[in-house]
Amino acid sequence: MSANLQNPIFTDETAARAHLEAVRWPDGPICAQCGNADPKRIAKVEGEKQSHRDGLYYCNECKGQFTVTVGTVFERSKLPLSKWWLAMHLMAASKKGMSSHQLSRMLGISYKSTWFMMHRIREAMKVTGGAPMGGEGGQVQADETYYGNTSKRSKSYRKGLKRKAVVVALVDPHKGEVRAFHMENGAGVDVVRDVLVKNASRKSTLVTDESLLYTRTGKEFADHQTMVHSGREYVNKDGFTTNNVENFFGTFKRGMRGTYHFCGEQHLQRYLDEFSFRYTNRSGLGIGDVVRAEMIAKGAEGKRLTYRRRY
Ligand SMILES: [Zn+2]
User: Fold this and answer.
1) 77 CA from centroid of ligand 1 (Å)
2) pTM higher than 0.90 for the full model?
3) Among 46, 141, 210, 263, which residue's Cβ finds the most Cβ atoms within 10 Å?
4) Cα(5)–Cα(117) distance, integer angstroms
């Protein structure tokens, strides 16, 4: 792991807050209420009484107060920011994910708090409003997989709930980006088309297996290349492959089985966001653990969590 765990941001609250400010506000504080970023119109609230919250700023435009955590997944958390930084570094660095039990022990906080914290970090990892994948001369690989615990010992199996969740993933092999989606109502031609056209540029070459899910939509793309999976074809005659998207599914499934021991369908999208984040920002692309954790902190913006209880 390339993050130096002796770094004060993991132990000292003032350093942790200063680091979050530096990452979120490289050009100085920005008011969370009105967007004012004029340093002459923003004042740090300081005083000897210490009656105010740490890192509090006063905005002269809207006469409001704010801190660096307002409007992020860190807002209203009772956990110190130093623990958040440590959790973000560990989750960013663990290729197969990290169990809540293990992280709870490493952070010295309760399992329940850790569990909520990790889901907030997954929310911060989620890509929102990214540019279309592929593009002219580019390609997008798409594939679907089925996810679920079909062990005959599991509760849901005994209840007769053998339905598996459907996941569709898209990979842009040139940019090294993946986006994965839990298809809550199953995968039909129209919902899969929706995912494809919303995320991929139709100027790209679409690369899929021969599933009928893609046949009609494939005609909307500049080109549609297919692979014969039943024939164990790994590269088709024109040199196209769906290996990248299959590798992503492999890493996801191994991590879910080995580290998370499966999850309920209601949380599946968050785990997909976690694995997609690490795939897209992996070290093979020259991104280290430190930068990856800082990217999570940047992604924490505008994502207040909906959990009712405060941890
Ligand atoms: Zn303001």
Assistant:
1) 22
2) no
3) 141
4) 19
